[in-house]
Amino acid sequence: MTADTLSLPIDIQQTTSPRVQDVDFTNLVFGRNISDHMFVAEYRDGQWQQLRIVPYGDLSLSPATAALHYGQAIFEGMKAYKNEDNEVLLFRPHDNWKRFNRSAERMCMPTVPEEVFMNGLTELMRLDAEWVPCAPGCSLYIRPYMFAADAYLGVRPSESYLFVIFTSPVGTYYANPLKVKVETDYIRAAAGGVGAAKCAGNYAASLYPARLAQQAGYDQLIWTDARDHVFVEESGTMNVMFMLDGKLVTPAVSDTILDGITRKSIVEIARHWGISVEERKVSIREVIEALKEGRLQAAFGAGTAVVVSPFSVIAYEGVDYHLPAVEEDSFVTKVKNYLTDLRTGKIADTFGWVLKA
Ligand SMILES: *Cc1c(COP(=O)(O)O)cnc(C)c1O
């Protein structure tokens, strides 16, 4: 079977042994179950080719595969939801596509045409629609990624690449408010570096400092700027936001801060609700002062995996500062519910963010 109305046709090979009925949709653990199919496209001789959807399974790679040595690898993370009519909804997928290509450019990789990204994605959603959970808080996590595929040991941009999309049904990511530690030794990103790209290496570099924080009893880090450790950057792999003096305050995106789609959606929703928003440099001193003076209503991480994840403790210079509990009528709760209602089609999408797959 071929979706042959496309200029780059997708060859579809459906699985003969679907696994969806074996999944316990009432107890989804992040990243454990992978859906039946995956989309694959190859970049060779300067062109995208051999677009296909095949049963999810192992890739066969040379041990010399460039991505495994020099880290030319990028990814995206997005989610699909079901509305009450059992239709599959995607949230701002074009923004993921655009960001993917910005990451690709920074890592000296070819960009992926909109048609390849979007058609691969929607065909995959069509085939694996049964994998999209409908229970509250659940969704289908979508992982598009690309890596350097040359079997060549010299250091140079690869000439061939694989672009793959696979998906995984997920429940809620972090259940409890997080205890976060302000990191003032290690860094996530420096000016001129790759912090704004969703590249694999950023995650590798964050694991060791995150483990040290976990061993000290914290869930996650707050990264500070690489030069002086004065300004707040991100939290773990989320953007970070504050409700400070009744205003939504968040570090402005830069080449050290990833341009999160959750972050910018929350900024737009807050403005839509008439809340003042400040996107600027935020010093950790300002946050701690406000916390001590009771002017910090909330601090939270924002990202596709978690949506919104409030902090209960911020640790700075050896002191644990406790944040107020998140109330039902707080901004954090309201914006989380609003985003969830938008994504699941419960409320009208006045922003034009939701796309039927
Ligand atoms: C993916 C990511 C985010 C969140 O981006 P979303 O588009 O909201 O998922 C934030 N920070 C980092 C470092 C990320 O990799």
From TrEMBL:
Give one GO biological process term: isoleucine biosynthetic process
What is any Pfam family matched here? Answer: Aminotran_4
UniProt xrefs under InterPro entries: Aminotrans_IV, Aminotransferase-like, B_amino_transII, BCAT-like_C, BCAT-like_N, BCAT_family
Q: Which CDD domains match?
A: BCAT_beta_family
Per its record, the protein catalyses: L-isoleucine + 2-oxoglutarate = (S)-3-methyl-2-oxopentanoate + L-glutamate; L-leucine + 2-oxoglutarate = 4-methyl-2-oxopentanoate + L-glutamate; L-valine + 2-oxoglutarate = 3-methyl-2-oxobutanoate + L-glutamate
Modification N6-(pyridoxal phosphate)lysine occurs at: 198
Q: Which UniProt keywords apply?
A: Amino-acid biosynthesis, Aminotransferase, Branched-chain amino acid biosynthesis, Pyridoxal phosphate, Transferase
SUPFAM superfamilies per UniProt: D-aminoacid aminotransferase-like PLP-dependent enzymes
Record keyword Membrane present: no
UniProt similarity note: Belongs to the class-IV pyridoxal-phosphate-dependent aminotransferase family.
Query: Function, please?
Result: Acts on leucine, isoleucine and valine.
Q: What is this protein called?
A: branched-chain-amino-acid transaminase
Lineage of the source organism?
Bacteria, Pseudomonadati, Bacteroidota, Cytophagia, Cytophagales
